[in-house]
Amino acid sequence: MAKKTTVALIYDFDETLSNGYMQDFTLIPSFGMTPDAFWKKANDWSRRQEADQITGSMYYVLKTAREKGVDVNRGFLKKCGENIEYFPGVKEWFARINEYGRKLNLNIEHYLLSSGYEEILAGAEIRKYFKDIFACSYAFDSDGIPVWPARVINYSIKVQYLSKINKGLKKVDDVAVNELTPDDERRIPFNRMIYFGDGMTDIPSMKLINERHGHAIAVYAPKKSHQKRKAIKLLIDNRVNFALPADYSEHKEIDKVVKTILDKIATERDLEVLKAKEEKKKQVQSILWKD
Hints:
Layout: E1 5-11, H1 35-49, H2 53-68, H3 74-80, H4 90-103, E2 106-117, H5 118-121, E3 132-140, E4 146-151, H6 155-167, E5 193-197, H7 203-211, E6 215-220, H8 225-236, E7 242-245, H9 253-290
Parallel strand pairs: 1-2, 1-5, 2-3, 5-6, 6-7
Antiparallel strand pairs: 3-4
Helix pairs in contact: 1-2, 6-7
């Protein structure tokens, strides 16, 4: 049997697996605000301050919580993850794809790479399926109260975390990620990565995966025409290989495409094993003929 091959499936979260932003389901309603009203205020504040939008929104969450008298602590944020709503088929997706990979002698690893909050994701129903999560995170005081952004994941930093997955590094290995690592020592080559995303913060990651012969999939909410147009534009611009409706159910387009990619990875691995056998045969015969 061929050596088991590891494949990384890497997902954005908001509007890729979830049908909205993770903060919209519990956190922002706890402020007595609609998501639209909150994000407008947060983004306006970031523009006035010339702040990174992701960092600015993390600050604005804490600012709003203080003003509204809402006790936003680690436990509350985890609780906010319990009410997240997902696109069709997401909850069943991971176990099904893992089993499909097992039949091909592939080890499927799932990763989240999100500009959302790690503390909210800790309470998400699907958290157990991920080998690791790379997301924004707060620093907390001794009472579990968030006091400062400890980690910020924006569109450019996402690329850095792809390199960490590629090299098999931990999220805090910020020096090693820039060190030269020979291709044959990298844990998961880019051509064995499948990236799922929906928007602007995913474009550099999609482009990198695509250029390195992996596969990038832009997903969109089936009933939202503006999201579909955005995904198709990514396809036209050669940022992604596929633009598909966000339905992860069995026999739907995402399911068929990903299984076909896994088939391809397994077949190419098996072909390389056969080629290696023939190369060894050639070397042995060359030595015998010389004698």
